[in-house]
Amino acid sequence: MPQSEYDGLLRTGSASWADFETKYPQARGIFLFSRAGLNAARDEALVSIGYYCGSLCSNGGVFLMVKEDGVWKVKQELVTWEA
Fold first, then answer.
1. What is the pLDDT of residues 53-74, one digit of tens each?
2. According to the 3-state scheme, what is the secondary structure of 12-80?
3. Which of 12, 43, 52, 68 has the most CB atoms at less than 10 Å from its CB?
């Protein structure tokens, strides 16, 4: 979904999780990803990821990714919040 639609449905407070569920009845939640912060060699990255599955159902954290043989893999994760 475009950022503008997310902002209108959930972020501005003008709508609610119920509105999201009505519009997307098959969805189980929303994942939000930050832009990746890359090291100078461009073979490691930090990414912040959040998962929202209801008004009191969410978690997120920071993931250290490494590029091995051309494939990005999770090397370490740190869950930083839960609701």
1. 887 888 999 999 999 999 999 9
2. CCCCCHHHHHHHCCCCCCEEEECCCEECCCCCEEEEEEEEEEECCEEEEEEEEEEEECCEEEEEEEEEE
3. 52
